[in-house]
């Protein structure tokens, strides 16, 4: 490789990497735990969901309960299912029936005046979380758990609450999208940079050489091993951000603002609208019958979303979006649309055979990104590769620092470089003990909600980050965060046992695999962390930094 191209690749890789290093570390670290999203949620609640079987009658009971609170006539009701269908976000729209809507708004306003405070979301709508196992209902903020927190942190959703408006997208989503784009650029330039020696350097690790060589060998070896995984996540992450956030400007450009048409073309049935006839339906069939119909047609698929359009009207429709089980079909998407008045199937699209190009691409990207197609072995592999990405980022920061800690660099620049590297490493490395600490506190409290989790995690992270930044010792930051994080990791299953009696041997005997996996994961992390601490302590004593 000629020197000009080398310098171009080196400078662009270094600059792009150092700009996004902290954000990328947060994304990889939180994203690694997000592979166990369902398991973390079950662990926090102390309720196993592995043995849950979808019961359509639960939907009827929930709708009956809702009808006692509000008049459901003319409303659209959406169920967004997760955790194997055991839990759901439920969205109840305002009624399109003008009479019902007027009465409901008046009742809502009267209730607000009595309570002297507004209701969440305002107007005549409802949005809540429902657990089909425990039969518990709660507002989103009250049902918020560690699984949701880490999942949303991995695409920086918490930054959406920062009062910065950019027009095309929420601030956090925009930052994560930009980070994904820059990350893809850094990956490609990094590969080109090491292309000539990619085979020879892969087998080289010189731990007793100078610091720059140590970090470079680690960065190169782990970067090459994890490159396919990291490239996969950069590409799929960009797609998901564009799909979720940047669809609005694309809709304005390509569909003249008709976003409903755009989503319809993309295969989303939630935007389908049906005219309200003001003719009440004489008899409403149980929703369980429609679910049984879908299960009978496609026994190897599961319902992902369920929509009820124009509830109680003669033009009422029940729509179900289904995904094939990965053991039968890796990609695909199905739809069953039934008209309630006569039971006629308006649209039937098999999740197994009637695949379009869009269905295949969407399913492929979602499957690859979420890693939900290979059970626990694949989740563990994805978790390890995600943590490996964190090590690549940390070693990259240290390479950047050591390369600039030279006598020919101005003292003020060396001082600034040292401070910034300390700051970056403090933020990154402190995530480990802070995450373990938050798990313990949340489990011990028993009544954690969104505000509580935010306070525990972000305040402890802020305090620990500034503490290690002011200490100005990357060596001590590395060793102490490893030690504290590992001890807390091993303490975590003990806390779970005392609080909920879900000792790891009890969860094994009861076949609560989801709860057991979280305890086992933290035990593994704690043991590996202590081994790494012991080895690192010896290593740093031989090579003081």
Provide a quick synopsis of the model:
By secondary structure, this protein is an alpha+beta fold.
Walkthrough of the structure:
The longest helix is centred in the middle third of the chain and has 34 residues, at 211-244. It contains 19 helices and eight strands. It has helices at 3-34, 37-45, 57-69, 98-115, 140-143, 146-153, 171-193, 211-244, 247-254, 259-265, 287-297, 357-370, 375-404, 411-429, 431-445, 450-471, 474-500, 504-509, 513-542, and strands spanning 77-82, 87-92, 126-131, 136-138, 301-309, 317-324, 334-339, 345-349. It starts with a helix and ends with a helix. 61% of the residues lie in helices and 9% in strands. The chain has an eight-stranded antiparallel beta sheet with strand order 4-3-2-1-5-6-7-8. A hairpin with a 7-residue loop joins β5 and β6. Residues 114-122 have low confidence and may be disordered. It is an alpha+beta fold and 545 residues long.
What key attributes describe this structure?
single chain, 545 residues, alpha+beta, eight-stranded antiparallel sheet, globular
């Amino acid at each position: 490789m000629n020197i000009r191209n080398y310098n171009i690749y080196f400078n662009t890789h270094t600059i792009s990497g150092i700009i996004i290093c902290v954000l990328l570390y947060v994304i990889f670290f939180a994203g690694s735990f997000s592979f166990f999203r369902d398991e973390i949620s079950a662990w926090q609640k102390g309720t196993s969901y592995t043995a849950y079987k979808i019961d359509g009658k639960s939907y009827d009971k929930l709708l009956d309960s809702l009808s006692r609170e509000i008049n459901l006539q003319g409303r659209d009701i959406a169920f967004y299912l997760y955790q194997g269908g055991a839990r759901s976000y439920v969205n109840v729209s305002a009624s399109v029936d003008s009479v019902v809507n007027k009465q409901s708004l008046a009742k809502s306003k009267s209730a607000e005046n009595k309570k002297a405070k507004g209701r969440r979301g305002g107007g005549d709508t409802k949005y809540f979380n429902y657990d089909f196992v425990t039969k518990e209902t709660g507002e989103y903020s009250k049902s918020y758990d560690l699984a949701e927190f880490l999942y949303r942190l991995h695409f920086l959703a918490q930054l959406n609450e920062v009062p910065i408006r950019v027009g095309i997208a929420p601030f956090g989503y925009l930052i994560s999208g930009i980070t994904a784009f820059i990350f893809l650029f850094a990956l490609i330039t990094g590969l080109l940079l090491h292309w000539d020696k990619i085979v020879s350097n892969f087998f080289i690790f010189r731990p007793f050489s100078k610091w720059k060589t140590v970090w470079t060998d680690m960065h190169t070896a782990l970067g090459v091993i994890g490159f396919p995984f990291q490239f996969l996540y950069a590409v799929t992450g960009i797609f998901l951000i564009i799909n979720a956030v940047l669809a609005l400007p694309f809709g304005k450009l390509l569909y003249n603002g008709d976003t409903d048409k755009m989503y319809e073309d993309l295969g989303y049935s939630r935007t389908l609208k049906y005219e309200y006839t003001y003719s009440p339906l004489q008899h409403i069939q149980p929703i369980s019958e429609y679910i049984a119909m879908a299960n009978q047609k496609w026994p190897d698929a599961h319902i992902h979303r369920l929509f009820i359009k124009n509830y109680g009207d003669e033009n009422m429709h029940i729509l179900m979006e289904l995904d094939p089980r990965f053991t039968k079909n890796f990609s695909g998407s199905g739809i069953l649309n039934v008209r309630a008045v006569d039971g006629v199937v308006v649209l039937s699209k098999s999740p197994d055979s009637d695949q379009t190009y869009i269905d295949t691409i969407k399913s492929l990207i979602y499957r690859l990104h979420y890693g939900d197609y290979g059970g626990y072995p694949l989740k563990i592999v994805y978790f390890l590769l995600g943590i490996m990405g964190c090590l690549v980022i940390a070693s990259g920061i240290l390479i950047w620092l050591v390369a600039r800690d030279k006598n020919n660099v101005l003292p003020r620049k060396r001082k600034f470089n040292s401070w910034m590297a300390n700051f970056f490493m403090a933020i990154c490395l402190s995530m480990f003990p802070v995450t373990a600490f938050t798990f313990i506190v949340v489990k011990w409290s028993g009544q954690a909600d969104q505000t509580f989790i935010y306070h525990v995690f972000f305040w402890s992270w802020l305090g620990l980050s500034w503490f290690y930044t002011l200490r100005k010792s990357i060596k001590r930051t590395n060793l102490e965060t490893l030690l504290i994080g590992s001890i807390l990791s091993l303490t975590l299953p003990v806390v779970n046992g005392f609080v909920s009696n879900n000792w790891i041997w009890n969860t094994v005997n009861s076949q609560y695999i989801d709860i057991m996996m979280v305890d086992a994961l933290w035990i593994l992390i704690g043991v590996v962390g202590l081994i790494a601490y012991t080895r690192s302590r010896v290593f740093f004593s031989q090579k003081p930094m």
